Structure of GNAT superfamily N-acetyltransferase:
Amino acid sequence: MGCVGIRVVDVTITELTRLFVYPSARGQGGGAHLLRAAEIAAQRLGSTRMRLDTRHDLVEPRRLYAKHGYREIEAPAQRLYADHWFEKRLAVSRQV
């Protein structure tokens, strides 16, 4: 009960653009499932890194990203509503 979006930045980087879980479905693992689905899609597109940005007030999402292997990085670009940037290295997909 939510949605996730990605965008290909270049041949190795995919950006997580959205991850939303409806309030009534939060705390049940849905965010983790959506995050993993986005990572799998990125791998199938050939990406080896997933990046995302978020705001300082979104504490729970930042905790979710850290729990799933995302590490804070320097901002690769300036965005009006982005305070934190994260990145995770993805395994190379063997699917064609």
In short: The mean pLDDT is 91. Strands lie at 2-8, 13-21, 49-54, 71-73, 84-89.
